[in-house]
Description:
The structure holds 2 protein chains of 2 kinds. Chain A is α+β, with helices and mostly antiparallel strands. Helix content of chain A is 20%, strand content 40%.
Amino acid sequence: MKLNIDIKELLGAVDVPAQWVGIREVYEAHTPRMIRDGVPVANARSSTHGIMVEVLVNGQFGYYGTPDMTKEGVSRAAKKAYQQAEIASGHALHHFDESARPSFQGEYRSPYTKNRESLSAGNLNELLLDAYNSLKVSDKIVSASSLCQVIETSFKFASSNGSDINQEFLMLEFDLSATAADGTNQQTRTFGGMRGTCRQMGLEYFDKYEIMANAGRIGEQALELLEAEECPTGEMDIVIAPDQMMLQIHESIGHALEVDRILGDERNYAGWSFVKLEDFGTLQYGSKLMNITFDPTLESEFASYAFDDGGLKATKEYLIKDGLLVRGLGGKESQIRSGLDGVANFRSSGWNRAPIDRMANINLEPGDSTFDELIGQVENGVYMESNKSWSIDDYRNKFQFGCEYGKLIENGKLTKTVKNPNYRAISTPFWNSLKGVGNEDTFGIYGTPNCGKGEPNQSIRVGHASPACLFENVQVFGGV
Amino acid sequence: MEQIFNKLSESLFGQLNEGEHLILSFDGENSQFVRFNNASIRQTGLVDDADVGLKFIANGRTCSGGFTVSGNFDTDIARGSSEIDRMRIESEQIPKDPFLVMPENAGSSHEIKKANGLAFEDAVDAILPAVSGADFVGILANGKMFRGSANSLGQKHWFETESFCLDYSLVTPEHQMVKGCYAGSDWNQQDYEDYVKRSRDKLVLMERKPVKVDTGEYRTWFEAAAVADFLGMFSWNGISEASLRQGCSGFGRMRHDDVRLSSKFSIVEDFSPGFCPKFNSNGEISPDTISLIENGSLKNTLVSSRSAKEYGVESNFAEGGEYLRSPRMEPGSLNHNDVTKNIDKGLFLSNIHYLNWSDNAGGRITGLTRYACFWVENGEIVAPIETMRFDDSFYRFFGDQLVQVEDKLTVVPEVHTYGQRSLGATTCPGILVDSFALTL
Lengths: 480, 440
Ligand SMILES: [Zn+2]
């Protein structure tokens, strides 16, 4: 049950002498369903609904997040936000004015044809149970699961300088997982994990995808990994599938380019960045083949939208062009603080958190190599699919990733399957070793439902699309 | 908050039909968040939040729900009623759950911790003067937290606490950092200022020019905060009974191959300090202490009531996710004053960062050094080190490579605020490891 709130009317209940006032309303409902080992383990629906009242006082913003969306509630919230901002304004890091919250009006709606109610709880459980049965290809599969989650978000924003924004999102997450084990030899293969299928789309997804065929393949590959050799150790070329490229982009480009990190806001939590303000326009981040965009317009990608949470209109922008760093991930506040051009990426995880610089859709634009051409260039290397482990330092330099599934590349051909493929490197040398970028046919759209950042902490959805890519001379290794 | 939850519970239980059961959980807070950068204020605000979780059991099925509590009874009861209606319909459609956990009435509890905390309007003036002139960055999370549980058989639990947590870093002009976390219930201005002064003193050590160490294996001391991070990994594909059964736990070698960790390594789940409620979201109360690893051998895993049914073992009333809520590692005999002498030549690591399993089955964890991490030679701190990546197995650093354990325990509070402020803490000593692998 969703209450209907008129936030423009609520704006009228604010009775404080602030320079600027905004109200952001967020309703979000999650409907997860999951079958594990043949039985239902989740059939849930939980929602959250509230508003954030934000005021600007002596150049300092103050906020109050509350689930009380009555006029009295808003009036009280504004007074308390005002008091917080007023006390803080004597110690403000930066004194803002109204230009930090530009005035825009408009709407956005996710592309979909079938809404949450188009399949009943019973239908979805049947589908997930069938998928589970297809995953369980052998008794050596000790555990298998299938899950889906529908997310419905409604976002409204109105402000004293005339912003009036209404955005409605429908998202679907889906995954399959099979674990094969033989004592302590244990291998899990998924459909990409939590970051594999997460898109703005409706339940029409289930009409198009061959769920059962994929489930059978995943089960078989889990068994294949159980019998596979360890990934070799050494410096060699790697071809990375888009479902791992997405996290490579996320960790070693996306976070490093967040301007609030560069300005030091995150030093106590997520960390700083090796990128400095003066690097924009000068740093050769990667090879000439590298083109990275902030693209809120790619249809069905997880973090597409028309406006960010500060009300700024979102447009596609190049962050890295032909390997050269040209633009950062800075929303309006960061643009004002840094003097740099930015993007509309001032985002929050909900009504109870204030927006900060986030990724949205950060994509690697396709190149012109076919998949076979990428593999064909490698004499001795490894092809890796689907992330299972990730870690990077607080400056976003030294990363290490592990994947679920690897194949040796020998003399330009994919040969044996290998388990526990891992690689590690340092961000800019790694991106400068980018030697081949796959074409549109190798392009995949992925994302992550839980990118963590911020104090207080915020977990947010981002999208990443990428072709398959070839990197030269990377440190590769296997398991224990 | 308690009245709101009680009234809502009563009303929702009244809507149940014969054969239907309902378990409610409650999470709420009245919080202040002040975010600092360069000893100034970056963002500031307040958040009131409360959510009710519902678990509806009928017809051999379990359905769950949840909604935000607005504080307006009519709104909240309408939300709750529509959830019950929805779950009642779904429970006719979904497959039977052979392992469903029925509610019980095993007795109620009530715990309210009053505190002489830091008033929201006083916070900025209390904090900032002591850090003036320093590059101080971090967050104050301050205020009340509420947890509740109630079921349709009449069992009720309530837990309410007030606390502050100032989680911060001090940074040198050369970008070296020291971490601090001043947390508690009663605010004591002098104690706070003393704490910050100790951080500032530590920062002086960080002004020495950092040294670059090579990859390789080193004798290494981990401060309690770093040990707490390693123990945190046990909550993720580790100590959970379900993870072990489902082939995705790093504890498999202990369970299947009878591998033991060091006899100096023991951990218990210990609820006695009251860092978090003893009841879980199902309203079940854990024993005060559960021995998990005793002198290196695996005694117990964390077992939820659902896992207990599914795998035919006894529940120790773990939370559904079977993660550690209030772990304590037993102390050893090494005095902190003797740490650098006992390292002799090697690494002194105060904090570690961004851990992940690099080979879960092998117990291998990768991550990075962060904050005050030093190179030690001839039993003396030489200088801070440049950030290094490590990749090593807990079967080594909590196993055959563990040489000494600190004689004193440190309480490392859970500071995460994803969705809401968290409760709980890890209580542990520092450890000295003979050989630890740096890889990048
Ligand atoms: Zn992230």
